[in-house]
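Record tRNA glutamyl-Q(34) synthetase GluQRS, 276 aa.
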Amino acid sequence: MTVTRFAPSPNGSLHLGHAYAAIVAHDRAREGQGRFQLRIEDIDGTRSRAELADEFRADLEWLGLEWEEVPAQSTRLASYDAAARNLLERGLLYPCTCTRAEIEALEPHLGPDGLVYPGTCKGRELDIGKPLALRFDVGKAMAEVGDIWWEDELAGRMRADPREAGDVVIVRKDSPASYHLAATLDDAADGVTLVTRGQDLFYATNVHRLLQALLGLPVPRWHHHGLLMDADGKKLSKSRHSPSLADRRRAGEDGLALAEEMRQGRFPAGITLAST
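=>
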């Protein structure tokens, strides 16, 4: 049985890119006579707004999707803390006080997910008065697990190598867990067997596969679909204020028809599906 999930963060309204991601996850579950889950990722500090979760449910219903709701991330903090302590006690995490500005000043190289942290705080005596994050010692972790693999429905069998992204944050300064740790633990807890998400998260999957190996978690399959782009060739995003599903719904647009059009590869004017 195929179990998929759609896991939005309530820090802004959903847009067409979210709709496409939800439709892909929903339809893959239905094809596998399985379950499509909704999980609210609500640990983004003060940016999380509880009222947006209700808006998300209305948007999914408008698109004609049916789901099973699982516990929100804010109910799972103990599991994140336990996993982080496990990794920390094994010497696989290290504290980091660097700000983004400080990292940019070091002129680090760019990886697939942005700036690659150069390991400045590794083995360094830190100012304990500063807010700190916990970073993943990826090299040490890879040495512990050896070769590991993951399976993508579109790309095939992949050897996990998260070193391209550097020592990513596992526990943020302002949050009990980063996306990498929380999503990996949640997918295991919810019995997700197929993780569907955009190709912009392809390299993050390497980090998640490594966490699964270290923490003894089950290994799902993955499906990294294309991304919706606007007329400027930019990925639709909350930060770019892409038009919301809620606005379309309130304006009387037919959500069922919109969903069916997207399934057929037809999108509103100015929107295209890109494979990278």
